[in-house]
UniProtKB/TrEMBL annotation:
<dbReference type="InterPro" id="IPR003945">
    <property type="entry name" value="NU5C-like"/>
</dbReference>
<feature type="transmembrane region" description="Helical">
    <location>
        <begin position="643"/>
        <end position="664"/>
    </location>
</feature>
<feature type="transmembrane region" description="Helical">
    <location>
        <begin position="460"/>
        <end position="483"/>
    </location>
</feature>
<feature type="domain" description="NADH:quinone oxidoreductase/Mrp antiporter transmembrane">
    <location>
        <begin position="132"/>
        <end position="405"/>
    </location>
</feature>
<feature type="transmembrane region" description="Helical">
    <location>
        <begin position="169"/>
        <end position="189"/>
    </location>
</feature>
<feature type="transmembrane region" description="Helical">
    <location>
        <begin position="373"/>
        <end position="394"/>
    </location>
</feature>
<feature type="domain" description="NADH-Ubiquinone oxidoreductase (complex I) chain 5 N-terminal">
    <location>
        <begin position="68"/>
        <end position="115"/>
    </location>
</feature>
<feature type="transmembrane region" description="Helical">
    <location>
        <begin position="76"/>
        <end position="100"/>
    </location>
</feature>
<feature type="transmembrane region" description="Helical">
    <location>
        <begin position="328"/>
        <end position="352"/>
    </location>
</feature>
<feature type="transmembrane region" description="Helical">
    <location>
        <begin position="495"/>
        <end position="514"/>
    </location>
</feature>
<feature type="transmembrane region" description="Helical">
    <location>
        <begin position="269"/>
        <end position="296"/>
    </location>
</feature>
<feature type="transmembrane region" description="Helical">
    <location>
        <begin position="136"/>
        <end position="157"/>
    </location>
</feature>
<dbReference type="Pfam" id="PF00662">
    <property type="entry name" value="Proton_antipo_N"/>
</dbReference>
<feature type="transmembrane region" description="Helical">
    <location>
        <begin position="303"/>
        <end position="322"/>
    </location>
</feature>
<dbReference type="InterPro" id="IPR001750">
    <property type="entry name" value="ND/Mrp_TM"/>
</dbReference>
<feature type="transmembrane region" description="Helical">
    <location>
        <begin position="414"/>
        <end position="439"/>
    </location>
</feature>
<dbReference type="Pfam" id="PF00361">
    <property type="entry name" value="Proton_antipo_M"/>
</dbReference>
Length: 666
């Protein structure tokens, strides 16, 4: 079987699994789980074969015209370079882990068949984006992911949080997709093609007439899809969906799509120095702001959501200094440890019965009750904090090393100002990342208090998947030399200066947070300001409790978990900034003021004009004939003499008129 055929099967198999799962979900529920797991597993094997065959050699291209358009053709094309084949392995492997994990996590969910089918469709769409060699076909996968995220985030549609979160995710990403679509057509107009290879050839020959405009239009869509400032506001709320969905969205699909798109078309963006500077500023604000927000969150999934935003900021930062090898390297390692973080968080939530770090901090024995989650999450958090030898260290150092080279003028591919922006923000974020990772670890696993009611042990498959993902979270970074072969021979080795600085700052962030936690915990205990003992569970049925634990929407224990905890080190570290950070620096309020309220006002105005102006003309168009009919109806008396008199009078008038006209003509 040819490499091209294998590559075609990689996105097709999850698609077929999704269709079969939807068709058989009700009539043959026993087939749902095999149909959920086997297609992505087979896709993983095939993607690995494609990667092994390509092995960083010349890109494999294949295309057939999809439909004649009369102008720029749309082609069903594959473009398999080293970046594409490696990212496809990540996507398929993470999707397989999520599907396996979900068989245990959602084993009692009545909507599991539709959930599993949507996850498979989501996976197929992302694989289409990864392998596609035509931008219109890529756009199809891009938009299918958007609609899948809408349904998956809103999986628990009974809750208002899930409904509003799914709608928010859909609308915010669509806000970016409008200029993105315009940018795609502008790019095709300048280069004469939607084929990626032809576009890159045209850019290399100076064929872009409007590089800055096109790049900025495309960046709007990237900011929406990859949750970058200022369109990142949908991602923290998307935690209302099931935890495995969060792992899939954050680790290998959707949010990674925007970063991958820029890496795919990096020469287009590098053609404009202004666009790279804009990208650097966007990345810097995203990194620093999301890290500060993560340090203030109480919901463990929201901490991880802001963490994802910040790590995506590192990827876009690498692209801002024109180093797509570093960006994709961090995408790979982040995909491994972020999937592990979310799935371990799901196991922890399952054991603790709450999403709240405050509630966990008032509970003892979580380390022993969720031992697998404890050890694997520790590995993932060390990778997130970028401490050696964990995978995040090597990929983050690749990003910072690229920024250093750009800042010091050792590369002409990116402006020095972009390098300095990325380097400064990246080092500051390294400190903050270690701080919020340490805070999460301490408050989740080192709580003090009585044990809470047991919600049941985690299914074996959930724990097995955690350990499977722990391996790449620990060791994937060590493959930087091998991955460089797939990335065109790029060097991904850490540089001494940035390694020492970033690791030192990470250690400072972790140690300061630990010391602050010791201080605030002791102070709260000494003053009696901290509530002691476990949270009292509310009276509810076992089914309701399970649904509450899985959805993560109302912490079990009432409003006690929402009270400010003086033992929280984040409050002391952030000081007066805490109340702003916990609200995401009020960007939701700004979005409501700038977009939602004007849109609602415009909608009300349109409704008023439709009702009072347009409908007035419509009603008038009906009223005038009705009035004329009423007037004519009065003349219809039914009296034959009256009709004859009117007829004769009319004939007489016509005769007189004819005589007058004849006389005037004579």
């Amino acid at each position: 079987m040819t490499t091209t055929t294998l590559a075609v099967l990689v996105p097709v198999l999850p698609l077929l699994g999704a269709l079969a799962g939807l068709a058989l979900g009700r009539v043959a529920p026993g087939f749902v789980r095999p149909l959920a797991v086997l297609p992505p597993l087979a896709a993983t094997v095939l993607a690995a074969l494609v990667a092994a065959r390509q092995h960083g050699g010349p890109a494999i291209n294949a295309a057939t015209e999809l439909t004649p358009t009369g102008s720029v053709p749309v082609e069903l094309a594959l473009h398999l370079d080293g970046f594409a084949v490696v990212v496809a392995v990540l996507v398929a492997a993470v999707a397989t882990c999520v599907q396996l994990y979900s068989t245990g996590y959602l084993r009692e969910d009545p909507r599991y068949p539709s959930y599993a089918a949507l996850v498979s469709l989501f996976t197929s769409a992302m694989l289409l984006v990864v392998y596609s060699g035509d931008l219109i076909v890529l756009l199809v996968g891009w938009e299918v992911m958007g609609i899948c995220s809408y349904f998956l985030v809103g999986h628990y549609w009974e809750t208002p949080e899930a409904r509003s979160a799914s709608l928010k995710a859909f609308l915010v990403t669509k806000l970016g997709d409008v200029p993105f679509l315009i940018g795609l057509f502008a790019l095709a107009a300048d280069t004469g093609s939607f084929r990626i290879t032809r576009i890159l050839d045209a850019v290399g020959n100076g064929g872009l007439d409007h590089p800055t405009l096109i790049a900025l239009l495309l960046l709007a869509g990237v900011a929406g899809k990859s949750a970058q400032f200022p369109l990142h506001i949908w991602l923290p709320d998307a935690m209302a969906g099931p935890t495995p969905v969060s792992a899939l969205i954050h680790a290998a699909t959707m949010v990674a799509a925007g970063v991958y798109f820029v890496a795919r078309l990096l020469p287009v963006f590098a053609a404009s120095a202004a666009a790279l500077v804009v990208l650097a500023v966007m990345a810097a604000v995203t990194m620093a702001g999301s890290a500060l927000a993560a340090l203030a969150q109480d919901d463990i999934k929201r901490v991880l959501a802001y963490s994802t935003i910040g790590q995506l900021g590192y990827m876009t930062a690498a692209l801002a200094v024109a180093d797509r090898s570093a960006a994709v390297f961090h995408l790979l390692t982040h995909g491994a440890f972020k999937a592990l973080l979310f799935l371990a968080a799901g196991a922890l939530i399952h054991a603790a019965g709450t999403n709240s770090l405050t509630a966990m901090a008032r509970t003892g024995a979580l380390r022993t009750r969720a031992a697998d989650a404890y050890w694997t999450m520790t590995v993932a958090l060390l990778a997130l904090a970028a401490l050696p030898p964990f995978s995040g260290f090597f990929s983050k150092e690749a990003v910072l090393g690229a920024a250093e080279r750009a800042a010091t003028g050792h590369t002409e591919a990116a402006p020095a100002v972009a390098g300095w922006i990325v380097l400064t923000a990246g080092l500051a974020t390294a400190l903050l990342t270690a701080a919020y990772a340490t805070r999460l670890w301490l408050r989740a696993f080192h709580g003090q208090g009585a044990e809470r009611p047991v919600h049941g042990s985690q299914p074996l498959v959930m724990n097995v998947i955690l350990w499977v993902l722990a391996a790449p979270s620990l060791a994937l970074g060590l493959a930087y030399g091998v991955l460089g072969d797939w990335f065109g021979g790029a060097s991904l080795a850490p540089t001494l200066t940035t390694s020492v600085l970033a690791t030192g700052l990470a250690l400072v962030g972790g140690l300061v947070t630990y010391g602050t936690w010791r201080h605030t915990t002791a102070l709260a205990a000494a003053t009696g300001a901290r509530p002691r003992g476990p949270l009292e569970p509310q009276a509810e049925s076992e089914a309701e409790m399970a649904a509450e634990v899985l959805t993560g929407h109302a912490p079990e224990g009432g409003d006690l978990a929402e009270r400010p905890d003086p033992a929280d080190p984040g409050r002391l570290l952030l000081g007066p900034l805490h109340r702003h950070a916990v609200a995401g620096f009020h960007l939701d309020a700004a979005a409501r003021a700038l977009f939602v309220r004007p849109t609602l006002a415009a909608a009300r105005l349109a409704a008023f004009l439709d009702r009072e102006v347009v409908e007035t003309y419509v009603r008038a168009s009906a009223a005038v004939p009705r009035l004329l009919g009423t007037a004519v109806r009065k003349s219809q008396t039914g009296n034959a003499q009256t009709y004859l008199t009117v007829l004769l009078a009319g004939a007489l008038v016509l005769a007189v008129a004819a005589v007058l006209v004849t006389a005037a003509g004579a």
